[in-house]
Design goal:
By secondary structure, the protein is mainly beta. It has 1 helix and 12 strands; from the N terminus they run αββββββββββββ.
């Protein structure tokens, strides 16, 4: 049986009648307007956000908003899934990240530049405890956080850390500049000023005289406990 040449226009007309001149099926716009090719399809851009406000009718429910008022109007926004922003790759839960991984806590600040010279005494520890360094010169002059110097001989405490258990670099340092060290015996006292409830009282202590290590000690103090050491500068 021979087909009529009017079949294709009639099919296009029927499709236009059902869908309208700018009929939309999902994301596809079907041509068929005046002069249009009924076989061509054009993808319509998809909105990425929803303007649905609290209290609006339930999308897709019996009380959903009516369809577009015109044949070429955009589809209602409630017809689309809302796109949510993704977490950056360097944050927990981002692409390739573990969503259950907690945000890392900030560690102590980097150790500052420490004063050096003919004599240098340095106390280090890793917790937020407040541990104090006291150094006594050969003549008995004490250098500590309340009297940091410089003393008459040039000795001074240049770094004091973790006051009130606020973790900083966890280091304290006393030094005498080149050519100013007093000769004789030095006494060093490590004091646990505030340790209990603030972290470990483990520490390391070093003392150098003109580049030679004369003390290299480790220990542990609790609150109000003291460890004492001595060395000579000749």
């Amino acid at each position: 049986m021979r087909r009529s040449s009017a079949s294709a226009p009639l099919a296009a007309l029927a499709l236009t009648t059902v869908l309208g001149a700018c009929g939309i099926v999902g994301d596809v716009e079907i041509g068929g307007g005046p002069g249009g090719d009924p076989t061509t399809t054009t993808t319509r851009p998809r909105p990425t956000t929803s303007t649905t406000e609290p209290g609006d009718p339930d999308p897709g429910g019996p009380n959903s908003p009516p369809g577009p008022s015109g044949a070429c109007d955009e589809p209602p926004v409630w017809a689309f899934t809302v796109t949510t922003a993704q977490a950056p790759e360097d944050e927990p839960g981002g692409p390739g990240g573990d969503p259950c991984e907690p945000t890392p806590s900030p560690g102590p600040t980097p150790e500052p530049e420490l004063g050096t010279g003919d004599v240098q005494v340095t106390l280090r520890w890793s917790s937020s405890a407040d541990i104090d360094l006291h150094v006594f010169e050969p003549d008995g002059t004490e250098i500590w956080f309340s009297e940091p110097g410089p003393t008459a001989s040039g000795g001074r405490l240049d770094v004091d850390s973790n006051v009130g258990c606020e973790q900083e670099a966890s280091v304290e340092n006393v030094f005498w500049p080149d050519g100013e060290m007093p000769l004789g015996g030095y006494r060093v006292v490590v004091t646990g000023y505030q340790v209990d409830g603030c972290g470990s009282g483990d520490y390391s202590l070093t003392a150098n005289v003109q580049g030679v290590t004369v003390l290299d000690e480790t220990g542990t103090v609790a609150t109000d406990e003291k460890d004492e050491f001595a060395f000579e500068a000749r």
